[in-house]
Amino acid sequence: MCIMYGNKKMICIPIQIYPTCGCLYNRVTHAYCIKSKGVAMLPSNWKEQLRYRFDNVFAKGTGALIALLAAASLVIIFVVALVVRVFNLAPDDIPLPKLMWMGLMRTLDSGTMGGDEGGWPFLFAMLTVTIGGIFVVSTLIGVLSAGIEERLDALRRGRSRIVESGHTVILGWSPAIMTLISELVEANASQRDACIVIMGDKDTVEMQEAIADKIDDLRTTRVVCRTGNAIEATDLQLVSLQTAKSIIVVRPDGEDPDSQVIKVLLAITKSPTRRPEPYHIVAEIYNPENFDVAKMVGGDEVELIAVGDLVARIMAQTCRQSGLSIVYTELLDFGGDEIYFKAEPALVGHTVADAMNSFQTATVMGIRTSAGASKLNPPLDTVIGADDQLIFVAVDDSNIQYHGREGVTVDESLIKTGTVTVGAPEHTLILGWNWRTPAVIRELDNYVASGSHVTVVSADVTSDAADVATAMTLQNQVLHFITADTTKRKVLEDLGLADYRHIIVMSYSDVLEMQLADARTLVTLLHLRDIADRSGLRFSIVSEMLDVRNRNLAEITQADDFIVSDRLISLMMAQVSTNKSLNAVFADLFDAGGAEVYLKPISDYVQTGVELDFYTVIESAVRRNETVIGYRLEANSNNKDLQYGVVINPTKTDTVTFAPSDMVIVLADS
Questions:
Q1: How far apart are CA 496 and CA 539, in angstroms?
Q2: Is 468 exposed, middle or buried (0-12, 13-18, 19+ CB in 10 A)?
Q3: Which end of the chain is more exposed for a tag (fewer CB within 10 A), N or C?
Q4: By three-state DSSP, how is residue 597 classified?
């Protein structure tokens, strides 16, 4: 057969064709070539085929190599023993099994040959076995060493499956994960051997070192890291979702993080290997437009945290009420008082008002009905059913002990009725612009008095200003726009900051990447603080930071200077991961349509300057259909060690003397 390359060169190969089998025989190489589907495969000889077989064995890993070495040793031992037995080379009449045993001993220990006696043929046979053994054992040591190193490398890469039960799984990695881990460690303090499993896209060693660097004491919790992609079914099997207590899906950094979260939810809930029981999944959705899609994917198995709306509500609420940020932090973290659900049989058939003063070291916030609906500050004439649970604020669930009305002392002469401080119109300044700014403005409109003004100053607002002004219907505010660079000190000074009680610094996240946006926020924040210090002005500042690490740089010890970041979201996700029912409570707490936290003048409720216990304050609030959860002392408003004067869930029998400037913390509808 001849092959032509263009019109210059021809190669001729002597080949004989066998038409009956479709085989080609090369007369030069003496190799057969099998035709497959009319196409002749490349010729191969027995050496290539043997090499190919060996390559396949080597590719199977350490176990296959050990088996191959064992087989080679047995072949050498058997052949030598058979030769010695057949040709009667041994000095004595030794049976074949014992000859094989002698060969095995010389294979494993070359020194055994030193005691051999007999003729030269026998000694040469034993030498052959010994040399073969030296080769096999040395190769075995190399194979085992390589196998162990490969296994250690696999462990470092985090690709082995964890075997845990009742653990918490965190899917994803972001700077805010440290807050999440810290809170879960605190929540697991009462467990003897808790476990958190993290799967991220970073190297396992890198994740473990980052955790060790940021969190000093994990207490009773073990943290196990794995490297993988949460949308891959095979990677999800590494973290044992089937036996997990809860699953937390962390929003990744970068563009369109919600799509990644939704993909992870799909991978978990639609996996063919998923467990039949419902999962307990907590996930964060950044853009409210993606909320319905995520809920459709996760169904009742997922509790979603709407980050965008939540941030807008928190900013609108905390900027208006000094100390409210401390209240929220206290309710959301595991370090102090927490929210619990507990049924109290002694109160079945009684009203919620009867329950308010029935617990000395716990505070009733609301009720969770037998249908699963949670309501904060319900109508206080609501009757408690047999399957209902009360919602408490307490240091620990062991502190929720029913005491009844015995020992309850209410001084009627100190209770004020009909006194309500009417809010005056407010002027709010918003510096910066992003897609959450309209939501912040709408939230503000729910709280401020009629005739209030809100001014938005931003270098990037003009493109959205007309749309916002026409689409937004405000009942209590007049909206103003100013185009200017909010990082310029002169711009800030010319705004007349003395006219504003509240300032909100929004991130430029729509037009800048995370670090640049946070840098502009930080510059604006530093200018505002310096202007306030130099001029003696007093106004509240609420700013938005995207990266929790930048929050730590900007944070200062003032209750009226609050930074909203992913830390609050992480606190909430940790809480919901331990108790699914808490998500409904938080939704009610932060929703303008339900009961919310207000700090109101204590002078509207009780006489000031007189020593009294907290039973009297609670009774005064009950008569207004409000729920008291604490108070704030103005004298301690600058003391960080005393929580800036905020006291949540005070012991009811403790007495306190309030000043006219002190505030009572209540759950109310307005």
A1: 12
A2: middle
A3: C
A4: strand
